Amino acid sequence: MKAMRDIWGQALVDEANHDSRIVVLDGDLGNSTKADKFAAAHPERFLQMGIAEQNLVGVAAGLASLGYIPWTSTFAVFLTHRAADPIRMLVAQSHANVKIAGSYSGLLIGAVGKTHLDIQDLAIMRAMPDMTVLAPADASELLSVIRWANAYDGPVYVRLTRDPGPDIFGPDYEFELGRVHHLRRGSRVALVSTGPQTVRTLAAADLLAAQGLDPTVLHLPTIKPVDEAGLLAALDGHELVVTTEEHTVLGGLGGLVAEILTTAGPSPAVERIGIDDTWGESADNAYLLEKHGLSAERISERTRLRLGSMVTAGVR
User: Fold this and answer.
1) CB of 18 within 8 A of CB of 27?
2) Are 126 and 224 in contact (CB under 8 A)?
3) Do residues 253 and 134 lie in contact, with contact meaning Cβ atoms separated by under 8 Å?
4) How many other CB atoms sit within 10 Å of the CB of residue 195?
5) Does residue 82 contact residue 53 with C-beta atoms inside 8 Å?
6) Pairing relation of β-strands 181-184 and 216-219?
7) Tens digit of pLDDT for each residue in 21-71?
């Protein structure tokens, strides 16, 4: 297992070995984001911008206009919050070819402190027109996402987590924009997740299977744009759809799935599991997963409770 930040740093080094257009702009966090790998390998294409994220994004947009492929590197919270205006004005509105790497995203960086947690980034970036939003699950998917993003002409936000996690996909994995991945085919209940949270969702499916259920598991690495028809087809015939995300339940994956289902017509019940409109905190990862219902055990438990309440209410 390797951390996404390590994979990202080395992948950009490798890509830049054969593409002189790639540059990295760092917000004085290279040792944490692993942009320092790029600085060591390609110092002439590494720009240390300091703690000035708005200016960092502006310079990235300028470099894109000259034909470079700039990657911005800092914690997600500093990009999607502090630098939201220049991302909106200079990158998204002008379709600038800027790649935004939001490191240390999500809930599981409790030791860093609550001010650095970003559990609203998907909602913010998904609401921004002309922005592609990606949340890879593991090392193989991230590597393919980086290659795809470098080849794509336009703004891309890539969500990167801090800690290492298990792999879902093999080394031959090829990312396809918008694709809905059917990781497990079942019936009645569908579990839908994104990013590394998909690993815990698969584990929850195993627990449910041991208790007599046969859940479907879907992975959505693309938050925007997603294959809506593919998602609807994958969820067809299920009574309950449970979304799980290491993100606020407002405006992220759960909102996306609910919007698509309800717009299409009569839909199954939807249970959204994530952070319930509250701030993060400094705490151990395992504690945070339990508290917010994101561990495999809590996902399984909440799914069974929702199914039970549906039966009691006469839904089926």
Assistant:
1) no
2) yes
3) no
4) 28
5) yes
6) antiparallel
7) 999 999 999 999 999 999 999 999 999 999 999 999 999 999 999 999 999
Q: Where are the domains of the chain?
A: 4-159, 181-312
Q: Are 269 and 242 in contact (CB under 8 A)?
A: no
3-state DSSP call for residue 101? Answer: strand
Q: Residue 32: which of 75, 71, 70, 2 has the closest Cα?
A: 75
Tokens 């015939």 found at: 237
Query: Sign of the C-alpha dihedral, residues 4, 10, 16, 18?
Result: negative
Q: Which two tokens stand for residue 22?
A: 């790639």
CATH fold of 181-312 reads: Rossmann fold (3.40.50)
Neighbours of 140 (CB within 10 A): 19
Task: Give catalytic status of residue 53 as yes or no.
Answer: yes
- Which pLDDT tens digit goes with each residue over 246-259? 999 999 999 999 99
Alpha-carbon dihedral 268, 260, 204, 125, rounded to 10 degrees: -150
Q: What is the CATH number of domain 4-159?
A: 3.40.50.970
Q: Quick one: tokens of 174?
A: 């090829």
Residue with tokens 């592609």: 132
Cα 99 off chain centre by: 14
Place of tokens 């599981």: 108
Q: Which of these is catalytic: 15, 53, 245, 246? A: 53
Q: Comparing 4-159 with 181-312, is the CATH topology the same?
A: yes
> Distance between CA 278 and CA 245 in Å, rounded?
14
